[in-house]
Amino acid sequence: MSSIIVQKYGGSSVETTEKIKRIAENIIDRKKTNEKIVVVVSAMGDTTDNYIKLAKKYK
After folding, report:
1. How would you write the pLDDT of the chain (59 residues) with one tens digit per residue?
2. Residues spanned by the domain of 38
3. Is the pTM of this model over 0.85?
4. Which CA distances in Å does 58 have to 43, 45, 48, 49, 54?
């Protein structure tokens, strides 16, 4: 049975285009080895925190 690799990126790991490019290159390299991969990407930088603050402000 082959394994599945799960990678999760979010927050500061996706806050700049350079970091996103490195993540994309990593994913491409993994795919070249025919590994099964699942990638989960969440909000950039402090986006989630900002949404929470905004929601609390208008609660």
Report:
1. 678 999 999 888 888 899 999 999 999 999 898 889 999 998 877 888 888 998 999 87
2. 4-57
3. no
4. 21, 22, 16, 15, 7
